[in-house]
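tokens incoming
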């Protein structure tokens, strides 16, 4: 049982857990594994897993994790720079039986480190790329309580990823669900799709009838929100299809006039049926046109569309809805 190989601080033993494979393969003997880990700086061997969190924990910065089969797994936390290649497969989230990390009780992926007042000066950048595949959740009791596909605090690149939140549960208290929630970092999305939940509160109650307070579902395809204890937010999306509501917000204590300094959203060649909700939580301090840093195909968006022109650039703008 004693470890006989140590690689990148990960020790594995003679029982073959995790399994070592020829570099670039997910097969050991006659056994094919769900997940392959290729270390940064090592082209001699690969390591194979059937659990995504184990692969993430073993990876070094810059490693590539490849999904080799469709899989159903519980939540994953990634707090290091790496690439997750979905390999054209589907990662389906399900509820963990028990989790020592409460963040993973309602999220399929938790990316990056959430800053707070104590570590706000921490300049560590975590760069994560997810590409080529699909992330969704089960439409059964096995996914009760999953309200997020991705909660992001990293610098994130999504390439050709279909985020299907159709079966995300509305939360018990407020009825909220988020396919992609961005509270920090630079996010670049190209191709793929973002689809909001279509599950009603009654539909969720049918699966999990206990502890419900919410009376209506409030699903979001994309949530872009700035918090004073986090780094600035910049989200650029191109060639993607979005179905559902886009929330653009900042916490109440942020002065509206400083809005555009901290949070940016740019959409280019984005298809689908989507609407905006612009809100900072208070009616009195609602941002005006000059405080909202949203562009669609290079044209500024304002929630105050009485004139049909943007107060900043005087271009004709699409309408949006400001939440009261």
């Amino acid at each position: 049982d004693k470890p006989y190989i140590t690689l990148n601080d990960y020790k594995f033993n003679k029982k073959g857990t995790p399994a070592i494979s020829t570099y670039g393969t997910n097969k050991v003997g006659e056994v094919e594994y769900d997940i392959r880990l290729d270390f940064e700086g090592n082209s001699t061997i690969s390591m194979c897993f059937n659990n995504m969190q184990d692969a993430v924990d073993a990876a070094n910065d810059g490693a590539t994790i490849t999904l080799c089969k469709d899989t159903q797994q519980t939540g994953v936390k990634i707090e290091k720079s790496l690439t997750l290649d979905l390999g054209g497969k589907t990662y389906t989230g399900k509820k963990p039986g028990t989790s020592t990390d409460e963040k993973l009780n309602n999220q399929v992926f938790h990316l990056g480190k959430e800053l707070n007042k104590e570590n706000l000066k921490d300049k560590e950048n975590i760069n994560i790329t997810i590409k080529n595949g699909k992330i969704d959740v089960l439409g059964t009791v096995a996914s009760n309580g999953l309200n997020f596909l991705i909660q992001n605090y990293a610098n994130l690149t999504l390439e050709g990823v279909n985020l299907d939140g159709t079966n995300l549960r509305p939360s018990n208290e407020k009825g909220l669900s988020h396919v992609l929630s961005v509270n920090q970092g630079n996010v670049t999305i190209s191709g793929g799709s973002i689809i909001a939940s279509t599950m009603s509160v009654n539909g969720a109650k049918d699966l999990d009838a206990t502890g419900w307070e919410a009376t209506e579902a409030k699903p979001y395809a994309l949530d872009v929100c700035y918090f004073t204890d986090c780094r600035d937010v910049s989200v650029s999306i191109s060639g993607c299809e979005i179905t559902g509501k886009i929330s653009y917000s900042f916490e109440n204590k942020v002065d509206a006039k400083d809005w555009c300094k901290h949070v940016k959203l740019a959409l280019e060649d984005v298809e689908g049926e989507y609407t905006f909700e612009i809100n900072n939580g208070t009616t009195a301090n609602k941002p005006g046109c000059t405080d909202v840093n949203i562009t669609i195909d290079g044209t500024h968006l304002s929630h105050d569309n009485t004139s049909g022109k943007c107060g900043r650039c005087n271009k004709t703008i699409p309408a949006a809805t400001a939440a009261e």
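note: The chain is about 5% helix and 40% strand.
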